[in-house]
Amino acid sequence: MNDANEELKEIVRSIGAFWILLIPAVLFGIWWFLPADFKSNIEGRIPIETITSILETLIYVIVVLLIVGIVLLVIRAILIGVLEKKRMRYYLWLPHADDSVSLTSLTAITKDLYSQKRMWYERLLKGKEQFILIIHNDSDNIVRFYVGMPLDRRRNVLTSLRGLYRLSEFYEVDPAKVYPNVKTYKRQLHTNRLTSLQRNYQFDPVGALIDKMEDDSWIEIRVTPDKSGVLERAVKLEDKKQKFDQKQARKNQNESGQVDGVSMDDARRLVKRLRPAAGDVEMVFDVVIQIESKRKLVATDLGMTITSLTQHSANSLKLKRTPWYQHVITQAPFLIGKTFKMTTSELAAFFHLPDIDENE
Predict the structure, then answer these.
(1) Is the pLDDT at 309 greater than 70, yes or no?
(2) Domain count along the chain
(3) Is the pLDDT of residue 281 over 80?
(4) Whether residues 149 and 40 fall in one domain
(5) Is the dihedral angle over the CA atoms 9, 15, 19, 24 positive or is it negative?
(6) Rounded Cα gap, residues 43 and 349, in angstroms
(7) Is the model's pLDDT at 29 over the cut of 50?
(8) For residue 252, is it within any domain?
(9) 75 pLDDT band (50/70/90 cuts)?
(10) Where does the sequence pass through the membrane (predicted)?
(11) Predicted TM-score of the model (pTM)
């Protein structure tokens, strides 16, 4: 009996967010099952034709407003995309062998990037800000690093990077020199974002990626600050789903109640890291990691390298097949691909310069 009550409560909570949509359906159902005499009595007292005319006008106004709203959203998206593309600035980031930065201190970069998040009214006018790290191994087998950012965030971002890498240098470059201008093979990475990715490495993962890069290949990491509430709600929904599945498993004579799914203990620890009470609170980014090369095998090999680097944790990045038309990394803010969530400490493992050995 208690299980039935709990299931009923879960159903009520699930439909609670859609009660506004249920009201018209309930009213229609009540009207449908009313006695015919009662309906004719109401129709004789209420001017049905007037009500019908009002409803037709209301529906017409709603449809017109929806069409106008969609058109305005499309125009806004195009204008923001064109203008933000012009506002994006790209810099060649030259590392220095004497810059010594520990992996534990790299979260300073990602936290500073998160602090550059635009206010809601700025995002309404300019769109979401994007910060980009591109690693390019050119045709001469020389590895170059580029960072991209909006014009209104340029000063703060460069100051943050110079604060950690005091000897590195930045030179503004044309985006045409950064992005590929020929047809290439592209791969993306994605993950189930309910559990933690690896945060602590015994080695530099960026250095391991560079060792695998061949000439004419690119790795792009594009990040946008996001709200942690989205990730928290996803974890809570998965937790409720697993509890419900466990109850069903027990009913079906599965005494252990074990079900397939993510590790909720790790997922709950992830949520605790996102809350201010955690002390050193973590923030969340929308992230896209894209790999591109003139050779299909190289692009796939780089993707598998990233997958192997993150597989020693509760979660890992996985290689994702891209459609045939997604063959070139697009300039910001245009993006073809699906984002996933990363916290500041997880992102810090990849969004930085590698350790430089001056003897290499």
Answers:
(1) yes
(2) 2
(3) no
(4) no
(5) negative
(6) 70
(7) yes
(8) no
(9) very high
(10) 12-34, 54-79
(11) 0.75
pLDDT mean across residues, the chain: 77
Q: Is the pLDDT of residue 359 over 90?
A: no
Residue type, 50: T
pLDDT in tens, 139-182: 888 899 999 999 999 999 999 999 888 889 999 999 888 888 77
Q: Give the number of other CB atoms < 10 A from CB of residue 186.
A: 23
Output the six-digit token pair for 109.
Answer: 């970069």
For tokens 């529906």, what's the residue? 59
Q: CA 102, 356, 349: angle at the middle one, nearest 5?
A: 40
Task: Look up the domain containing 53 and give its range.
Answer: 2-75
Handedness of CA 11, 15, 19, 24 (dihedral sign): negative
Q: How far is CA 208 from CA 98, 123, 129, 141, 232, in A?
A: 20, 36, 29, 16, 32
At 251, list the tokens: 């009913």
Report yes or no on 243 lying in a domain.
no
Q: Is 357 part of any domain? A: no
- Give kind and range of the element (H or E) at residue 289: strand 284-293
